[in-house]
Amino acid sequence: MINKLELQALKKWFFNNKRKFSFRENPTPYSVWISEVMLQQTRASVVVSYFNRWMQLFPDIESLAKANISQVMKAWEGLGYYSRAKRLHIAANELVEKHKAKIPDDPQVLKTITGIGPYTVGAILSFAFRKKAPAVDANVIRVITRFFGIEMEVSKSEAKKLIEDKTLLFLEDEKPYVVMEALIELGALVCQKKPICSTCPLKENCKANRENKAEYLPLKKEKKSTVPITRMVFILQYGEEFLIFQEKKELMNGLYQFPYINSEYVIESELHSWLKEKEISYQEVERLASVKQFFTNFKVMIYPFLIRVTKKVSVSDMQWIAYSKMKTLAFCSGHRRIINQLKDIS
User: What pLDDT does 346 receive?
Assistant: First the structure.
């Protein structure tokens, strides 16, 4: 157990500085589950509007399970990492079928549910069921590795176990969830990538602070280098309709997109070759503003071309759809920005 003065200082800091978010009000197992999955890879300030809309559309496990996957994907549009939305839908159906639409409070059972990993298990147990459980996210990892001076690569299993054990040392028997949330907030607001040690309530006994190693920790394995992609996107228009397809590849699986090709350079002859291959006749080609899109370790420069065709032809695995209907479908962020450009053109 950490000494009481440090815990008091941490809790005092927390009560004075904690951020107010709708997903923290009146937490239930379901709302904690949804918000914590949304918070993975996404800033809390961004999650708020998505969480509020989600809870209106799918207020409980049954409504999520009954929803069509396309509705779920549309509700997630813009949050990225769409596999999270798919796993939520799968898990909701598992909970209906196996657990009477209830989220269990047994950690071993929770781990068997699709998409619920160690952090989400800890968050549900701590914030929804008020149990003494470590909820170790990136914020907590920074706090714990620096406070205890843990110089181990944090993705290793032994490091993860040690960090969980050290986190438990902070948690009191009474209302352990308060300190658990305080540690998350401390990591988010003070113990950041570039820490603000001067305002930290734990600075006196923080080993990394004493040894001037705060910016050195936590130790992480080297990130994958960014892969640049040049992509030519073809927006084929016939009257009020546009040609789109539903992506089957893993990263964007289930999302709608305009047809595209990847190319080392933006060469319009490649566009004309593609149109010729598909036997598409056209009367006009207009180049739209380029768009940047980032996902995982890819940086995609999108170069969209609006092509007004003279005849609506069938293209394998693609469909023509009215502009008005596109707003009901889930598109990746880059192609959604292209659609926004079309508002002023169509």
Answer: 53
State residue 236's pLDDT score: 93
Beta-carbon contacts of 329 under 8 Å, excluding residues fewer than 6 positions away, are 70, 74, 244, 256, 321
CA angle 128, 133, 138 (to 5 degrees): 95
Contacts of 178 (CB under 8 A, 6+ apart): 11, 14, 172
pLDDT digits (tens, 9 = 90+) for 155-182: 999 999 999 999 999 999 999 999 999 9
Q: Is 233 helix (H, G, I), strand (E, B) or coil?
A: strand
Backbone angles phi, psi at 123, to 5 degrees: -65, -45
Distance CA 119, CA 21 (A): 19
CA 195, 198, 200, 202: dihedral to nearest 10 degrees? 110
- What's the whole-number mean pLDDT along residues 273-292? 89
Tokens encoding 185: 């907030």
Cα 300–chain centre separation: 18
> Coil, helix or strand for 230?
strand
Active-site residue numbers?
Answer: 36
Backbone angles phi, psi at 134, to 5 degrees: -80, 130
Place of tokens 């607001």: 189
Domains of the chain, start order: 4-210 (1.10.340.30), 227-342 (3.90.79.10)
Q: How far apart are CA 260 and CA 272, in angstroms?
A: 13
